[in-house]
Amino acid sequence: MDVSAAREPLVVSAWSAVSPFGIGRDAFAAGVRSGAGTARRVAESHGEVPHDHACLVPDFDVRAVLGRKGTRSMDRVSGLAVATARELLAGVGDLGDPTRTGVVLGTSGTAQQMRDFTRDSLLGSRPFHVNPAIVPNGVMNHAASQIAIWHDLRGPNATVATGRTSGLSALAYARGLLRSGRARRVLVGAAEEYSATRAWLEHHRTSERLALGEGCALFLLESGSAARDGARRPLLEVLAVESQVALGDDVGPALRQCLVDALDRAAVRPEEIGVVRHSAAPGDLGRQEVEAVRSLVGAEALTRAPDVACLGETSSVVAAFQLAALLSVAPTRGGVGDVAAITSVTDEGTVACGLFRLVRDRD
Amino acid sequence: MPPRVVVTGCGVVCPTALGVEEFARALREGREGARPISLFDTTGFAHSHGCEVTGFDPRRWLRELPSDRVGRASQFAAAAGRMAVEDAGLDLDALRALRGVVAVGTTDGGSHELDQAVEMEIARGPSGMDPALVRRIPAGALSVSVARELRLSRVDAVTLGTACAAGNYAIGAGLDALRSGEVDFALCGGADALCRRNFTGFYRLGLVAPRHCQPFDANRRGILTGEGAAVLVLETAESAARRGARVHAEVLGLGLSCDARHPIAPDEEGIARCMRLALKDAGITPGMVDAISAHGTGTRANDVTESRAIHEVFGPRPPRTIGLKAMLGHTMGAATALGAVACALAISRGFLPPTINHVETDPECALDCVPNRAVPADVRIMQNNGLAFGGNNAVVIFGRHAPDAPPAAG
């Protein structure tokens, strides 16, 4: 175990996103700053859907974006993840030894292809008359492994599936890999796809009428010294990532405790938090989330980061989009605490938060 | 020096046993879990044996979690978690005041329920799916269910979707969190429930054996899909000593690697690199490993590639290498967690479980797989291999815990 690395600050030194605002970081940043809605009528090719509007990545056809080689059977969530990794890596230069770069992705995979596969088995003239090429797509770790294959990243490769908190769970796991010296840098983030199957499952799971969103956001997480070695400027320092479980139906008390414990771990006072980007959870869940945050850090901090609701309900990728939203605005100067937080809650009872210090230009 | 980490509790739900004591007996006996699949309609498949968990009544194990509100894999995980804390003799009230991680690995999450939802969609249209069933699908529930069953709130509950190596990933997450001092305890393991989609996928790829799984056998025919869960209680050696806990084994080291080559086919380089990383992390040399619990699926691609990687790392006379999947089937996300419990039992109870159904060792594998009968053995250090689709490799090394000796001498 590399003890010096364990004590060094961990920083995000690059990021990118593929989102309903389009491909790339700049499109995301300009989009969330504008707050423009991205919901559009869902194309008829999706078949019957419960809600006729959704926030899709415009014109995202996997083969058009990534080329025809190796994409014949690629599922949408893997395509979004591989494209985002390509955008990120294009801007970071040589990462050195590929066995020292890991990938950690928050995703629950492609519900659509899982459903299609089972449906073919049930409806075909033989139960095994299914498409063998999509067997691996139905495994949750497929998107993360596709990032590794496409970009030759041979370090630890992990997939976390915790629903709306997945981006924060991925960040916590990636932090563990760096702290233990199992990787020198990690591409970490989350991905989600829109599909009719996901729309129906979300429709039955919640009572809300949701315009679903999709996309992927990835961050390069490394120690401050690894960033310096690669001549990359730290954009944001990760102070704490904390996750807990709500045992009752109200997630508020657990989220509040989660924030208190994160502040304690990071030795940060609540008043130092200048910006909070909550997860804009639908319905009661969202009201409980906002109330828990407000009770601890006040209402004003909640207004200082771009809202991610303009991207729709983005499920597994929402926490990664929240972090991207924090990175999309220049840190404010003076008067406001320079610690930023994101919070997240799920129906299953997971609550999570992250505390970050935004690095100003010429800091 | 980071703190040493030990296993003090094990919970098992698997095709041959419920509970760690019965699991130990089943391993010694070489009990086989294969039987005709009953959990979904197998009409039309030429053969359809699998390793189902039978006789599992969730109400017998679960006290807090409403079992009808979670899926089959979550029930397995929560039951194994309950068994593990009881095996560890933990005081739950004390545990609730501490910081912990609950990490559960899985291949398919709630796919058992998703398959049922698809059937319902076919029968009634997409608007006719049962909301209560749909709410049992999300994979995140696997780890949350363990936390809810034990009423643990201050835990990081994470479900790791790293497929068939996921149990080892979960144990690794617990190991690193304990070493870093961020948590006081870890409940780690894996869980999966048998489902049509998984079975059909392996079947379509020609990887399902008709009747028996025969790892490393010249006439092996493939895997049998299985299901179950295992959860291990990890804590620091200091914590275990303080509360006078019985220690099953010490977690000596972890290796993680990605082949970055192929979505399905395993890669010798990636696997060998993973084993070397685990040995280095454990601070031991290959010659110190007494036995290996192989990934050993019983497919041609896995067994030959894994054997070559073992020979590459361990030389011409590698340690005895067992294939538990002959008994348990391929329990997917639970597989390496069950393997971890088997390693801990081999070390603490002095025996090596057998590779059953063995007739003739494949010369391309050339391993002593402890054929058919368990043997008494002084197992001081045992390696647990996990290799997954996507080239996600995870290897964990366990050792006999000797509190006063350095781990490598344990």
Question: What report would you give on this structure?
Answer:
The complex is a heterodimer of chains A (363) and B (410). By secondary structure, chain A is of the alpha/beta class. Chain A has 2 domains: 3-229, Thiolase/Chalcone synthase (Peroxisomal Thiolase, Chain A, domain 1); 236-358, Peroxisomal Thiolase, Chain A, domain 1 (3-Layer(aba) Sandwich). Chain A contains 12 helices and 13 strands. In chain A, the strands form 2 sheets. In chain A, strands 1, 2, 5, 6, 7, 9, 10, 11, 12 and 13 form a 10-stranded mixed sheet that branches. A 3-stranded mixed sheet of chain A has the order 3-4-8, with no helix packed on it. In chain A, α4 packs parallel to α6 and α10 runs parallel beside α11. Chain B is globular and about 65 Å long. The two termini of chain B are 17 Å apart. Chain B is α/β, with parallel strands linked by helices and 410 residues long. The longest helix of chain B is centred in the first third of the chain and has 16 residues, at 72-87. In chain B, α3 crosses α7 (141-149) and α8 crosses α14 (335-349). In chain B, β10 (291-293), α12 and β11 form a beta-alpha-beta unit. Chain B has helices spanning 20-29, 58-61, 72-87, 92-96, 111-124, 131-134, 141-149, 166-180, 196-204, 237-242, 268-282, 300-314, 325-328, 335-349; strands at residues 5-14, 17-18, 35-36, 49-50, 100-105, 155-160, 185-192, 228-236, 249-258, 291-293, 320-322, 351-352, 375-376, 381-388, 392-399. Chain B folds into 2 domains: 5-242, Peroxisomal Thiolase, Chain A, domain 1 (3-Layer(aba) Sandwich); 255-403, Peroxisomal Thiolase, Chain A, domain 1. In chain B, the strands form 3 sheets. In chain B, strands 1, 2, 5, 6, 7, 8, 9, 10, 11, 14 and 15 form an 11-stranded mixed sheet that branches. Chain B has a two-stranded antiparallel sheet with strand order 3-4. Classes of the chains: A alpha/beta (363), B alpha/beta (410). Chains A and B meet through α5, α6, β6, α7 and α8 of A and α5, α7, β6, α8 and α9 of B.
